[in-house]
Design brief:
By secondary structure, the chain is an alpha+beta fold. Helix content is about 65%, strand content about 10%. The protein has ten helices and seven strands. A hairpin with a 2-residue loop joins β4 and β5. α3 runs antiparallel to α4, α3 packs across α5 and α6 packs antiparallel against α7. The longest helix is centred in the middle third of the chain and has 61 residues. The chain is rod-shaped.
Length: about 350
C-alpha cells in the first residue's frame, strides 16, 4: 500500500460495523439475563458488549500499518512472525481490556470476588481463538483492499501513460516541422514564383515529399538512420533551392551505421538551426557537415556549420535543441544527450544515444 491507502479505506464504515456487532452482542446478553431471571441491566450489557468490539475498531489501525509493511501474501516467514506477534499482543490487550471493563460494570456481582487473573484465563479459554480469527479477518480485509487499490492505481497509471504517449506523439508530429520553417519555405516559394517559377515548382515538390514522409513516420518512435538521412536529404533539397549556390552540404555516415535506430526528424531540426543561425547570417558560401560514428556502444551524430561562433550564453541552444534533448531523454534517459559548442571555426551539435540496430532491442 502507498501512503494514501489509509485515506482510501472506509474507517468510519469499519467502526460502524463493529458497533453493530457490539449491539447485537448486547442484545444476546440482555436476552440471557431475562432467561436466567436476572435483573436486566441495560447500560452494563451495552457497554460490556460494545466496548470490546470498539477495541478492535481502534486496533485495526496498527494491523493496517503492519499489513502495509509486511503483507500477508505472498507468505513469508518474517511477515508471518510479525503478524503472529502483533496478533498475540492485541488479543492479550483485548482480553485485559474486556475483563477490566466488565469488573467495573459488574462490581457488585459475585464475579467481582474472583481474582483478576481468573477471569483473564477464563476469557482467553473461551474467546481467545475467536479473537485470533478477528485479527486474521482484519488482516485479510486490508490485504484485499491493498490488492484492489494497487489494481486501480495501475489502471489509472496505464491510462495516464497512454494519454501522455498520445500527447507526446502529437507533440512530436507538430515539432517535426517547425512553423517558422514552413513559413520561410512558403515565403521563399512566393518570391521564387515571381523570379524563377521553375525553382518554385521544384521547392513545392520537395516540400510535398517532406510532408508526406513526416506523416509516414508519425506513429514511430524510432526509425533506421538510413530513413532519417532520406528525410534530411528531402529537407536539404528545399534549403538548397532556397539558398542556391551559397549552401554546401557534406554527409559522412558509414554504411555500417545506417541500420542504427534514431528518433524520426532528429537531425532535421539541428540542421535547420545550423541554417538559421549560420547560413542565413552570412552573405558568402556556407558549409554544413553531417557525420556519424560509433564507439563503445554509443552512436554519435554531429552537425557542423561554418557560421559565426556562439556567444558564451548561447551554448545551451534554443527550442530546437531543447526539443531534441527532451525526445532523447524520454527514449534513452541519461544515455541520450545533445551538446552544442564552437568547433573548428564554426559551430557543432553532437547528438549521442545508445547504438541499437533495427530489430535488435
Amino acid at each position: 500500500m502507498d501512503r494514501t491507502s489509509g485515506e482510501e479505506f472506509p474507517w468510519l464504515l469499519l467502526l460502524a460495523a463493529f458497533l453493530v456487532i457490539g449491539l447485537l452482542s448486547a442484545t444476546g446478553a440482555l436476552s440471557m439475563q431475562r432467561l436466567e431471571a436476572q435483573p436486566v441491566r441495560i447500560a452494563p450489557a451495552l457497554l460490556g458488549s460494545v466496548l470490546p468490539w470498539i477495541f478492535w475498531g481502534v486496533a485495526a489501525w496498527p494491523i493496517f500499518l503492519l499489513v502495509r509493511r509486511f503483507p500477508i501474501l505472498p507468505p513469508r516467514a518474517t511477515n508471518l512472525v510479525a503478524h503472529l506477534g502483533l496478533a498475540l499482543i492485541l488479543v492479550l490487550l483485548q482480553v485485559l481490556f474486556t475483563v477490566w471493563v466488565n469488573r467495573l460494570l459488574y462490581a457488585a456481582q459475585a464475579e467481582r470476588q474472583e481474582p483478576f487473573i481468573f477471569w483473564v484465563r477464563a476469557y482467553v479459554a473461551n474467546r481467545g481463538v475467536w479473537n485470533l480469527l478477528v485479527y486474521v479477518g482484519l488482516a485479510g480485509l486490508f490485504q484485499a483492499v491493498d490488492a484492489r487499490n494497487r489494481l486501480r492505481r495501475q489502471e489509472i497509471s496505464s491510462a495516464q501513460l497512454e494519454a501522455q504517449l498520445a500527447q507526446a506523439r502529437l507533440t512530436a508530429l507538430h515539432q517535426q516541422l517547425q512553423p517558422h520553417f514552413l513559413f520561410n519555405t512558403l515565403h521563399a516559394i512566393g518570391v521564387l514564383n515571381q523570379e524563377d517559377p521553375s525553382r518554385a515548382t521544384r521547392m513545392i515538390a520537395a516540400l510535398g515529399d517532406l510532408l508526406r514522409s513526416s506523416l509516414e513516420t508519425r506513429d514511430e518512435n524510432e526509425i533506421p538512420l538510413a530513413r532519417e538521412l532520406v528525410l534530411l536529404e528531402q529537407y536539404l533539397e528545399i534549403e538548397s533551392i532556397r539558398f542556391s549556390d551559397r549552401l554546401t552540404v557534406a554527409v559522412d555516415v558509414p554504411d555500417r551505421l545506417r541500420n542504427a535506430l534514431v528518433p524520426p526528424f532528429s537531425l532535421q531540426p539541428l540542421v535547420e538551426n545550423a541554417i538559421k543561425h549560420g547560413v542565413s547570417r552570412r552573405t558568402g558560401p556556407s558549409t554544413i557537415r553531417v557525420a556519424g560514428s560509433a564507439s563503445n556502444g554509443t552512436l554519435e551524430l554531429t552537425i557542423w556549420n561554418s557560421g559565426p561562433p556562439l556567444a558564451p550564453d548561447r551554448t545551451s541552444g534554443g527550442m530546437g535543441l531543447a526539443t531534441t534533448r527532451d525526445r532523447l531523454a524520454r527514449l534513452h534517459g541519461p544515455a541520450g544527450t545533445v551538446e552544442l559548442a564552437n568547433h573548428e571555426g564554426g559551430v557543432q551539435v553532437s547528438l549521442r544515444l545508445p547504438l541499437r540496430e533495427n530489430g535488435v532491442r
